[in-house]
Amino acid sequence: MDRFVIEGGRRLSGTVDVRGSKNAVLPIMAAALLTREPLVIEGVPDLRDVRFYAKLLQVLGCEVSSEGSTMRFQTCNEEEHTAPYDLVSKMRGTVTTLGPLLARRGRARVSLPGGCVLGVRPIDLHLKGLRALGAKIKVEHGYIDAVAPPGGLVGAEIFLGSSFGPTVLGTANVLMAAVLARGKTVIECAACEPEVVDLARCLVEMGAQIEGIGSHRLVIHGVPELTGAHHRVIPDRIEAATFIVAGLMTRSEITVRNMRSDHLTAFFDKLLEAGAEMDIAPTRVITKPTERLNSVEFTTLAYPGFPTDLQAQMMALLTLSKGVSVITERIFPDRFMHASELMRLGANIRREGPMAIVEGSERLSGAPVMASDLRASAALVLAGMVAEGETEVQRVYHIDRGYERIEERLNALGASIRRVNPGPHE
Ligand code: EPZ
Q1: What spacing in Å lies between the alpha carbon of 168 and ligand 1's midpoint?
Q2: SS3 129
Q3: 22-232 fold
Q4: What spacing in Å lies between the alpha carbon of 212 and ligand 1's midpoint?
Q5: pLDDT greater than 90 at residue 415
Q6: Angle at CA 418, nearest 5°, toward 412 and 423?
Q7: What is the pLDDT of residue 93?
Q8: What is the overall mean pLDDT for the chain?
Q9: Residue 89's pLDDT band (boundaries 50, 70, 90)?
């Protein structure tokens, strides 16, 4: 397994362009199953997860071609309705094939996605929503087996919230089923993350009738058929924020371009409270060399609250702040695998249930650390870039899932990150 060897203490400079959003493009790719016409998506990031999902769609009868960052999907064969375990188990986002297959083919057999380091990752709300639309669903032998009524799915009023708030992929799944259901569907407590908005906008470009896009209440009037579309994916707000944290942690002036600042309001609010100096424009941010930041308290919440996908990166930043910060994780209460690894770099962090108490220190010191999930890996790379001496981040395949050539792009800004392939004995 590849690992990164990082030389800490280097200043950054220059400009980095943000790629298309991983979490927007994955459900949008699944929308190709809703029509036999071509769906062309521009601005697709070159990520393992994208390549992987494209492979699954091919298994499900979709022809896939790509030219640069433009990918073309066209469903030509609708016989298959099973998303196999060996593909789904490696990437939870593939669960969003469930809704489209059910809506278009009347049948879907998708492996249960399984858990991950963030916790159990249930899909009860996905199934609740699809059952409300008339699907008969059995869960056995590790598979979700769903069958639509003989006349097809029927619109319904659905509350799709849990004690953790809305569900992003659950909303995507039910939305993609409802657009072809007969009659009107109302999804209350729908997720309104920019990635869900982007999917909804793409579905409207395909002929779907959706009201309330961007709100927690979506009203969908089903249509018999959808057409193809040509859609450009939104920039990845989590990647943009990760680069901004890199600039602030290394006390550098860098420009992060091709982003949407309006997708990161809660994140900027906390950074400004901590004393970060940035020149924020609608599609680019310039970080300014800032002295030690102040500590802050923040809680991760559904959009527009502070994103859980930025919690690890913000923790890395706060390990060097003045005073004591308190981080409360309300979306995935166990999402603190990165804390123990940051402590190996000298960070001072204490867990208290869904909270992490971070006492800022003057410096971090390099050490070997282990990546555990996509965003934790990013946090460890950021910390390694400022820790004194050398940091080795193992299992960087996690980071390759969500960040395109991250070490090349950070090195182009002045970082020193070497990707080391495993030796014969590893
Ligand atoms: C999406 O996951 C993202 N993944 C996650 O990003 C992100 O952290 C998460 O949304 C929250 O924003 C993709 O888009 C591929 P949820 P998702 O359903 O949809 C509970 C990354 O790093 N829940 O919104 O699976 C759940 O346990 C990844 O890019 C239920 O209880 O997350 C959690 O506590 C990590 N029942 C909360 O809801 C359900 O049926 C929010 O989860 C579904 C979810």
Answers
A1: 6
A2: helix
A3: UDP-n-acetylglucosamine1-carboxyvinyl-transferase; Chain (3.65.10)
A4: 21
A5: yes
A6: 155
A7: 87
A8: 95
A9: confident
Q: Tens of pLDDT along 307-356? A: 999 999 999 999 999 999 999 999 999 999 999 999 999 999 999 999 99
Q: Where in the chain is the domain with CATH 3.65.10.10?
A: 3-18+235-420, 22-232
Cβ neighbour number for residue 330 with a 10 Å cutoff: 17
Instruction: Show which residues are catalytic.
Output: 116
Q: Which of 393, 291, 296 is nearest to 344 (CA)?
A: 393
Report whether residue 228 contacts ligand 1, using a CB cutoff of 6 Å: no
- Tell me which fold the domain 3-18+235-420 belongs to: UDP-n-acetylglucosamine1-carboxyvinyl-transferase; Chain (3.65.10)
pLDDT of 194 higher than 80: yes
Radius of gyration of the chain (CA): 22
C-alpha–C-alpha distance, residues 68 and 261, integer Å: 25
**How do residues 338-349 score in pLDDT, each as one tens digit?**
999 999 999 999
Interatomic CA distance for residues 136 and 105, integer angstroms: 14
How many whole angstroms separate alpha carbon 76 and alpha carbon 62?
6
Atom 14, ligand 1: residue with shortest CA distance:
23
This prediction's pTM: 0.97
Element (H, E) at 217: strand 217-221
Contact 364, 383 (CB under 8 A): yes
Residue nearest atom 28 of ligand 1, based on CA coordinates: 309
Q: Hey, which of 125, 139, 331 would you mutate to test ligand 1's pocket, going by the most ligand atoms within 8 Å of its Cβ?
A: 331
Contacts of 333 (CB under 8 A, 6+ apart): 119, 353, 354
- Given the CA of residue 308, which atom of ligand 1 is nearest to it? 8
Lowest mean pLDDT among 167-176, 196-205, 392-401: 392-401
- Cα of 287 vs centre of ligand 1, distance in Å, is 30
Is any atom of ligand 1 closer than 6 Å to the C-beta of 237? no
CA distance 258 to 21: 11
- CA–CA gap between residue 192 and residue 348 (Å, rounded): 35
DSSP state of 306: B
List C-alpha distances in Å: 213 to 68, 121, 130, 188, 284: 30, 25, 20, 12, 25
Do 144 and 192 form a contact (C-beta atoms < 8 A)?
no
Once rounded to an integer, what is the mean pLDDT over residues 20-28?
97
Phi, psi (rounded to 5 degrees) for 425: -90, 0
